Amino acid sequence: MALVVHKYGGTSMGSVERIKNVARRVAKWHRAGYQVVVVPSAMSGETNRLLSLAKELTVSPDRRELDMIAATGEQVSSALLAIALQSEGIAARSYAGWQVPVITDNSHTKARILSINCDKVISDLDQGRVVVITGFQGVNSDGNVTTLGRGGSDTSAVAVAASLKAKECLIYTDVDGVYTTDPRVVPEARRMSKVSFEEMLEMASLGSKVLQIRSVEFAGKYCVPTRVLSSLTDPLIPLDQEINSGTLINFEDDDKMEAAVVSGIAFSRDEAKITVMAVPDKPGIAHSILGPISAANIEVDMILQNQSVAECTDFSFTVNRVDLQRAVEVLKNEVMDVVQAREISTDEKVAKVSIVGVGMRSHVGVASLMFKTLSQEGINIKMISTSEIKTSVIIDDKYMELAVRSLHKAFDLDKAPESVTSKL
Amino acid sequence: MALVVHKYGGTSMGSVERIKNVARRVAKWHRAGYQVVVVPSAMSGETNRLLSLAKELTVSPDRRELDMIAATGEQVSSALLAIALQSEGIAARSYAGWQVPVITDNSHTKARILSINCDKVISDLDQGRVVVITGFQGVNSDGNVTTLGRGGSDTSAVAVAASLKAKECLIYTDVDGVYTTDPRVVPEARRMSKVSFEEMLEMASLGSKVLQIRSVEFAGKYCVPTRVLSSLTDPLIPLDQEINSGTLINFEDDDKMEAAVVSGIAFSRDEAKITVMAVPDKPGIAHSILGPISAANIEVDMILQNQSVAECTDFSFTVNRVDLQRAVEVLKNEVMDVVQAREISTDEKVAKVSIVGVGMRSHVGVASLMFKTLSQEGINIKMISTSEIKTSVIIDDKYMELAVRSLHKAFDLDKAPESVTSKL
């Protein structure tokens, strides 16, 4: 019988009553004949409670010890779920990351999974047990407990599914799938029944919070069919019935997927634009400006270089809004004199809007339709950045909702994806 | 330099502020040149909080999963202590039981320690680190987390001290040592600076709650010098200065210890007496009565068989008061008809008072002085039980305090121990 991995987030595991509810859901799959491995998060609020104890002791606690503390949250929720399953009459057993073991590298608080030995898990499954594996954590080669960073339980679930060659990894969450854009901004936003791995990767990196980006990378690397779906509705069993439930991240280049030129629209208000003005246009200028920024651990997103007057150039880039002040200080202290810049201007009232779709690869004119749409609404584009399957623009943040709504309509995202290509 | 093991209970670890205080105490020892291993309990209340979550799910949760849950309490407190030590400028590292590893048998929730591999700990100590090891827990040979039962952190500390051949195991608690009897009953009660291992074992088994009895057994088996002392007063360093602090459980048969005929008086109000009356006096009667009691997992303490009338006997025994009703039901349902007993009488208004001392071995007349003292106070003795170093009596519980006070005086326990033998 088929093997599936279920992942439940902190909200689903948030109380004893909710854990009972998760146990009833898992029991249904088990009784229908599925082998089930469950990867839960800690009970909501628990990880914050634990870490705040450490923060009371010192502003920068040792990360090895932080991992020892944080990892207990999932150990408790996993054992509670095993007990709840047993109360449902299902044989069940929980394992902490080190017991499986889930081997990671040594980067405490943001470790990466290197390998998973599933021998114990397979033996338990073969004996008819449901196996519960703590999300978010592992153990390094020296036997130290590690954690994967916020949202790491998604990655744990996908990695376990990859290791077990599961039929699907089902990520249960409080939304019922991945949408063409945020339904709070565009009420006509449509749930996608499928999304390609690359699109999901762009969506995640552009701030769509449904899945942790590293779990998407993992799903892509090991081709794990991963579905995002709601933990609030009754599960559809067998798995084939789930075909119209949630959003499946898949790896098949089927015709239907080709047809979707633009799959979704992502946006973010966490941006700030910095321009270093009137810099002499010499080779190496980008490195002179961005080197110190990178050394200060500030992440740069878009980069733009414009020739303004003869032999001079304006150099612009965007950073996360919270890093703006720090970035400006670095520029004033370490960069301005070196590159002989005239002045620095900043703009923190900007937003980023992106269209994403694998279909862009094979269709010209997608970016043009985007620019035309924004122009018809009187929205000025401040910066543009493109990748193979994504076009992003920086605009005034007061126009963000308008831009998202008009692009959603222009690319017919409220309709079935097949009808889009005719417009181009 | 000398190696010492410190154990701190849940109250000492009860808040971030208190953990800082423990770190400051440990730091003093470390700065004085000692190698220190610390074994903390969970923050007070935490183990109960965790187990109550499991109890909300089912009345009898799986014990393997309970251990997974309960063990997290010490993992958190140990890592917090390591962080607090680092904030004091001391290199420190925490290990969970499975990381050391502390190997136990398979008895979940009441496991026994089989062995401890201290290689990692020794290597850390040699590098100048303080090592924090979770109390209360270990791992069995299959890699499952186990816990040692309530008070198990004492046993962890003594076992770690044995494994490391520590100079002393210092058990910090909220009392400043082991007393000749409870100072709340006898204000003249005196702290003992030393107590023999066998006496401590009897005191622990008789209800003196200072140390878990299994930790005392462990200390005896491996001859670990173990000291009970207060976590509220400033530590005296070097260790030699602690000679007048707390109570040392020791293993040397020195002259001073010989002199103490009676070292302490223990008492307990948790007793109930059951008498099965007028049982035909035949071989095997004790087994017929106590077999079913034992099968019902009820612990029997004292046992007394009195011939009452010809060919008949009264058979009395004591149980913990909370087990009385259950014991009576077992007797009525499974025993009375079989042994042809006339009736069952119970007495739950009884208390047990015991005098304990290694000197009893070599001195006659100790029990006589006890009986004489009680008789002079008009206290009737209902049952008597003796061992090599202990004499216990069951009396009316309303006389318990009076008995303890008059015995404490009769054996001169408020004075220095040397003066006692002259009385006998």
From TrEMBL, chains A, B:
Superkingdom per UniProt: Bacteria
Domain ACT span(s) in chain numbering: 274-349, 355-424
Organism for this UniProt entry: Candidatus Kinetoplastidibacterium desouzai TCC079E
A GO MF term: aspartate kinase activity
CDD domains referenced in this protein's UniProt entry, alphabetically: AAK_AKii-LysC-BS, ACT_AK-LysC-DapG-like_2, ACT_AKii-LysC-BS-like_1
Name the record gives this protein: Aspartokinase
One GO location term (cellular component): cytosol
EC number of this enzyme: 2.7.2.4
